[in-house]
Amino acid sequence: MDKKLITELKKKLEEEKEQLQKQLLTFADRDKKDPNDYDARYPDMGKYSSPDENAYEVGSYENLLALEHVLELRLQDVNSALEKINRHDNSYGKCEVCGKPIEITRLRANPAAKTCIKCSTKNKSKTG
Ligand SMILES: [Zn+2]
């Protein structure tokens, strides 16, 4: 893959990683034993005196847990993509299912993509 493109995608990934961590830390604490694990704090409504600063609505604790889950999964994907880039073994940008290069347009839209368009559509229909 083109080095320039990898640099571009790496930058995107690093920016997204920062965003995800910031978002998680607004309502969750980082696990002391595992820095990649976050635990949602029970909402203390007194803290949210300026709701405009929060990009999301502060709902119930369940909503926070669901949001934490989504952000954490996304962070894991971003991290593993960055790891692949840093390994320099050309594993980045290859589909984990069929081993073919992932479409560049797809990587631009989602630099953490693990599968090509074909395999991701296959997966979706399987899991529903
Ligand atoms: Zn594939």
Quick take:
The chain is mainly alpha-helical and 128 residues long. It has helices spanning 3-27, 61-87, 104-109, 117-127; strands at residues 28-30, 38-40. Helix 1 (3-27) runs antiparallel to helix 2 (61-87).
Key features of this structure:
single chain, 128 residues, mainly alpha, 2 domains, 4 helices, binds zinc ion
The string of secondary-structure elements, in order, is HEEHHH
Helix content: 40-55%
What does the average pLDDT come to?
86
Low-confidence runs of at least 5 consecutive residues: none
Termini separation (Å)?
Answer: 32 Å
Number of strands: 2
Global shape? globular
Sheet bearing the most strands, described?
2 strands, antiparallel
Oligomeric category: single chain
Number of helices: 4
Helix-strand makeup class: mainly alpha
> How many distinct domains?
2
Bound molecules: zinc ion
Strand order of the largest sheet: 1-2
Overall radius of gyration: 17 Å
